[in-house]
Amino acid sequence: MDGDTLYSIGDLARRSGLTVKTIRFYSDRGIVAPADRTPAGYRLYGIDAVARLDLVRTLRELGLDLSTIRKVVDRELSLPEVAAAHAEALAVQIRVLRLRHAVLAAVAERGSTPEETELMHRLAQLSEDERRRLVGEFLDAVFGGLDAATPAFAGVMRSMTPELPDNPDAEQVQAWVELAELSLDPEFRASVRQLAEEQAAEQVRSEAAGPRRDIAAAVCDQVGPVLAAGVEPASPQADPVVAAFTANYAHLVDRPDDVELRRRLAARLERVNDPRRERYLQLLAVVNGWPAPESLAPVLDWSVQALRVRTP
Asked: How far apart are the first and last CA of the chain?
């Protein structure tokens, strides 16, 4: 095409693939200005108008507003600057869409009430600082003051801290919403606090003998093999296993291995076996991108039953 040739708006529409109405709209806003007019007042455009319209169409498809597009085509703004700003804005929009998708998926799956839906929506929209504050309040309610007496609790607190990534997927967002709801449950907080206090007291008592594993973890290690072997909790074959873990607990708390101690241990293992605690750990793994934790429920169920049948 000759660089001096001028084209009518109809010619420009055929070359650019845009409608006459669209080109006139852009022309009226100064984005693609005519180079001249016919004696009858019709607009004429130079060859550069085709290139400008191609750029305008591309930028519109990417979602840029007309004001920004005009600055780009007039070289008042560089395209890389605009692209970077627009990419950032799209990232925010994508995050919002992920949050909305997670909330809607949770509502569809759980059949939530309007009140629960509102809570989920608010939890999903929390900023990073607000999320950290909510998690901090939960961890303080559960572990506050215990980490000073037992330094090992600092590591426990870290292992129970959810950290939603900058670009979470829908599953992580949905897990975060459910985990946040769970952390706000006063009964759940009280249950986990009681477990933490019991574990802290046991660790303090055993300091002279060196650090010890939590009794629930120790019981699971002892019970796992017999459970896998199909030993019934009420059978005679279970006697030595129960005797071993009750003796371990008696030594840990410095009490005789009697009926009262076995009742106390059974209650402790039942609290550890709270389905809400296991659910928290499952959700935590999803949010943090960790491998799914192994369920301890079968081992703990076996242990509690074995204790109960041997306790008058």
From this structure: 101
pTM of the model: 0.67
Nearest to 34 by CA among 59, 63, 9: 9
Is the pLDDT higher at 110 or at 165?
165
Closest C-alpha to 253, from 270, 244, 265, 241: 265
Q: Which amino acid is at 238?
A: A
CA–CA dist 34, 24 (Å, integer): 10
Cβ burial, residue 64 (10 Å; 0-12/13-18/19+): buried
Q: Distance (Å, rounded) from C-alpha 4 to C-alpha 22?
A: 24
Candidates 141, 220, 153, 154; CA nearest to 184 is 141
Rounded to 5 degrees, φ, ψ at 37 are -135, 155
Instruction: Give CA–CA dist 204/195, Å, rounded.
Output: 14
CA distance 119 to 114: 9
* DSSP code for 111: T
Q: What is the pLDDT of residues 83-104, one digit of tens each?
A: 777 677 777 778 777 767 777 7
pLDDT, tens only, 160-205 = 999 988 777 778 888 888 899 999 999 999 999 999 888 888 776 6
One DSSP character per residue, 240-306 reads HHHHHHHHHHHHHHT--SSHHHHHHHHHHHHHHT-HHHHHHHHHHHHHHTPPPPPP-HHHHHHHHHH
CA distance 73 to 32: 9
Alpha-carbon distance of 153 to 211, in angstroms, equals 12
